[in-house]
Amino acid sequence: MKGLNSTLGITAISMIVFFMLYAILFGKTANEQFLGLKTWIESTLGWYYVVMMFLAFLVCLYVTFSRAGKIRLGSDDDRPEFTNFAWFSMLFGCGTGAALLFFGVSEPMIHFASDWSGGNPFLSQDVKSAVAAFFDAKRIALEQGLLPGDEGFPVPSSLVAEAAASGVKLTIFHWGTIAWAMYGIVGLSLAYFAFRKGLPLSMRSALYPLIGNKIYGPIGHTVDILTVFGTIFGISTTLGLGVEQISAGLVSLGFIEQKSQTVTILSIVLITVVATASATSGVSKGIKRLSTLNSWICIGMLSYFLLSSNTNYLIASSVTALGDYVSDAVSMTLWTARSPEERVWQGGWTIFYWGWWIAWAGFVGMFIARISRGRTIREFMLGVMFIPSLVALLWFGVLGSAGIHEAIYGADMSIYNAAVNNWDYAGAFYNIFDVLTPGTMATLAKAAALAVVVIFFVTSADSGTLVLGRLLAFGRRPPVQQRIIWGSVLGGVTLILLVLGGDQAMKSLQAASIAGALPFTFVLLAMMVGLLKSLHQDGENIVDNEAHIKRMIEREIADLS
């Protein structure tokens, strides 16, 4: 096929086909093996994932505030191709996806009130007991016909307030600066070696300072194949969560009676078709427009929650969470489970997230590099690490706090039950609209939320398709046929993980992301060493092979159309 590196293409496609056939032919056995691998990694290598994320964060900080921060990703005369708003929109749309909505209400609530596997490890037992006692008392009061404000209705103690703040803080930790540092290190390496050094916009290029021209041989092929492997499972996790969110939205809006396998299959097929069509239209026409539209809808949703819930509580909770996160960030980052119960909790939450971010880093990093030519390293890092973290603070601070406020002070326990008792992540998100603004307004808000989920779904699959095509085209613009093939592969793997997992689909998605991340971590370690070595040798005004780089950039600009 035109534009396809035959060695990479045949090997990568063979690996994915083998996985799909194995999963189809040995469904139950395959699922048990995937979940067993997940459990082994959580119990044996959890510390390794923790160290990897913290190391990436330290490297990003050093690069940002060192002399290297002044180096421009391209020639010294290059300037950014996209406006800041369009750039931030694409960063956020590509780097978070529909999962932002999937966990927006439920995760802070679970960290606040759930006792699963011991509950939030950063809360004392006294705090956890106070939260459990409060909700038991509230349940009894509601059954007796009492309402908030009535005599005898339970009033939350300061310990309950402490738990609520910790729930939001822990969620922001999972989605904040540490997570985006992993994207930042990969994106910077790719952009630097491509636009500053004239190497292909491919993962193998980051290893050039270590192995030189061997990147064009078997070692380089292995690096790109590992990236493909991790990317497919990382994106499939996100797409799987998106499908769950779409199904829940259709149920909430009354279009279907209940979730079903048929709805799952149709959702994946339809969205995959739309995403693949978007990918064939190029970055500026497809992803940029969708990401910008989604940013405006998300701003509207934040405004909705601020106006319909207790504004003072949401703002105070967000500010408190920011202060708590800044003061506790290092200890939370390095916390590693020691007891079996703690390992189960950390594996289900933190290690799952770290594996997800690592598996996703190849595709997100390449996409970020693709849209960041012309920015300085310092500008790039501040934009990638801190702007999305502030948005995550706003998003979870507002949505999460709105759910917690209604659970504590509201006249029903539907949001609490959906998140804590039923683990219905998607259901909790749509349920909050009915609680805040019952009737027509709730219907409109849920329709807007469903639109955001669909667009996030499309942009994630869209950008993933482009990245996979570039990896197998050796960093060049992938032809349309490749984009269609990889769009279909992403949809197929997502479908297999969801159908294979059955009622344990969430665990199957977690297993895919955690396992897919492991081999890619070795690439990341080499990438960080290579980047630091090259930056140390690079002068602030030196651009290697300037004529060659100018020709390459001209081709990249042509790709935008």
Please outline the helices and strands.
Layout: H1 6-25, H2 27-65, H3 84-95, H4 99-102, H5 106-113, H6 125-143, H7 158-175, H8 177-196, H9 208-211, H10 218-252, H11 261-279, H12 283-308, H13 311-334, H14 340-370, H15 377-409, H16 414-421, H17 425-436, H18 440-472, H19 480-501, H20 505-537, H21 546-559
Helix pairs in contact: 1-2, 1-10, 1-19, 2-8, 2-14, 2-15, 2-20, 3-12, 3-14, 5-7, 5-15, 5-16, 6-7, 7-13, 7-15, 8-14, 8-15, 8-20, 10-11, 10-14, 10-17, 10-18, 10-19, 10-20, 11-18, 11-19, 12-18, 13-15, 14-18, 14-20, 16-17, 17-18, 18-19, 19-20
Task: Give a written overview of the molecule.
The structure is a single chain. The chain has 561 residues and is mainly alpha-helical. About 1% of the residues have low confidence. The relative contact order is 0.20. It contains 21 helices and no strands. The longest helix has 39 residues.
